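Could you help me review a protein record that somebody else here produced? This is what I was given.
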Amino acid sequence: MSAFLTLDTLDKSFGTQAVLRGLSLGVEKGEVLALLGPSGSGKTTALRLIAGFERPDRGRILVQDEEITRLPPERRNFGMVFQHYALFPHLTVGENVAFGLASKDGIGKDEADRRVADALALVDLPGFADRRVGEISGGQQQRVALARALAPEPRVLLLDEPLSNLDPTLRERTRRELKRAIQRVGITTVLVTHEQEEAFHLGDRVAVLQGGILHQVGTAEELYEQPATRFVATFVGRASVLPAVLQDDGAAVATVRWPAERTPDLASTPSGEAVDLVIRPESLAFAPAGDPNALAGRVTERRYAGPVTYYQVALAAGGEVEVLAPSGAAAVGDEVRVAANAEGPKARMFRRGGG
C-alpha cells in the first residue's frame, strides 16, 4: 500500500542554487514526519512545495495516489501553522478560529460554531472562544493557531517552526500540549524544525536533510544509534570524530586501538583504509591507569547535567573527545585516561571524506 502523502523525486532550484535534489519521502496516514536539518538544508522549501506555495522543477506530490503537484494551495485542503501565528488581535479567539471557514462552501453559522468549539476542545481550550487574543499566553496563542488550521478538517497538517517564538520553558510545555492535540486528532502531519529535541519529541519519524539532499529517515533511536551517513552521525546528538586506520581484524586504530567488537561492520572496506570513528559521549568512559587500550588526555571543559557530566578531553596524541561520566568523576585540568565503554552504543565508522 502506498503512503498517504508522497513526495516523488522533487527537485527545486532558485536561479543557479539547487535547494532540493531528488527528494523522495512517504508519510503514512496519521503519521507525524519531522523534517530536520540546518539552515539552508531545504526543509522549508519542501514544506512550501507540499503546501503549494512553490512548484517543483521536477517530480510529483501525491495524496492518496492523487497527484496534486500543480494544484493551487486553496484546493489542497491542507492546514498550516506558521512560525508567526498571524492571529488577528481585534478578533476573539473564536473568530480567529472561524476565519479559515469563511471560504468553505456549505458551512453555515451552526456548523461553523460546532467546528470552532470542536477545534478548541481538541487543543484543550474549551470556553476560550470569547476571549481576546491579547488576553491569552503565547502558548495558548499557538494552540489557537493550531485550532484555526484544524477547523476546516484538512487532509494534512503542515507545521512551520511552530514553537520557535516561545521562550524555552514555555516551548517545552507547549510542545507537550501540541503533541497531545495532534495525537488526539490523528491527522497526517509534516513538521519543519531545526531543533532536534522538537523533531524527536513530536515526530514519529524524522527525515534529516542537508544541502537539499535527504540523508536518512527513521525514528529518533535509529538516527542516533544507526546513522546512515557521517553527517547524520555528527548532526544528531553529540559525537566526537577520530581519524583512524582499519586493520585486518576489523579493529580501527586512531590514537589508540578501537576494538572491532565496539564498531559495526564496514562492508568491503580494505585493511589500511582511512576511516573516521564517530563516537558518542556515552561510548567512552574514564579508565584505570593500567588499561592498555586507554587514551591519555586532560580534561579541558565540563558541562554539568545533574547526576552526569559531559567532559571535554584533549588527547595527548592529538584530537579531542567528549566523555559522559558521573558528576564529580574528574575536574578541569585533571590528567585522565579514556577507553571504549562496553555498555555504551557502538562507534560508527565511515570512510574518510564520505557522507
About this structure: Residues 168-185 form the longest helix (18 residues). The first strand starts at residue 5 and ends at 14. The chain has a mean pLDDT of 88.
